[in-house]
Amino acid sequence: MNGLFDADPAMRLTKYTDYAMRLMIYLGSQPTGLSSIREISDTFSVSQNHMMKVVQDLANAGFLEAVRGRNGGIRLARAANEINLGALLRHTEELSDLIDCRGCRIAPACSLPSVLSEATAAFVAVFDKYTLADLVEKRSTLGVLLGFRAALPGEDCSPRALGRQSLEE
User: Fold this and answer.
1) pLDDT per residue over 110-120, tens digit each?
2) Structure confidence at residue 49 (pLDDT)
3) For the chain, which has fewer Cβ within 10 Å, the N-terminal or C-terminal residue?
4) Distance (Å, rounded) from C-alpha 88 to C-alpha 92?
5) Which of left, alpha, beta for 154 (phi over 0: left; psi -120 to 50: alpha)?
6) Residue 89: how many CB atoms within 10 A of its CB?
7) What pLDDT does residue 2 have?
8) Three-state secondary structure of 33-86
9) pTM of the predicted model as reported, rounded to 2 decimal places
């Protein structure tokens, strides 16, 4: 059977959105200056070509600023607290049609599309409550994990300690 309920029930974002969110978190965590697509791609083990497409799209949409030239790179186009996650999600995901009802014999009487529309609106409403600044509020820890800074003497940045830290914060 190949239908709506056959797949994994978890709601999933596209890889494109995953890459866009990682890119934005990286840039939002960056202390200053410009970053290269290569360093971001290497950090997340993502194809440089894929990351280039995401960067171009987000720059065209006004989320990023791309500086050309020998000392060029990319950075956020606005402060992290001005970048709404719901707006980013709407830009990177096609949220209108979660299922394709064309050709379905029950489509004229089925209410599933309206239920899915309501569920999608609720899902996006959660993202609307947050900005990029909320995702990078643990900037110090992100800096260590992303290689922007070394751990301070006595600072335990092991996965076990970081898991404990996230529970305590």
Assistant:
1) 998 888 888 88
2) 95
3) N
4) 6
5) left
6) 19
7) 47
8) CCECHHHHHHHHCCCHHHHHHHHHHHHHCCCEEEECCCCCEEEECCCHHHCEHH
9) 0.79
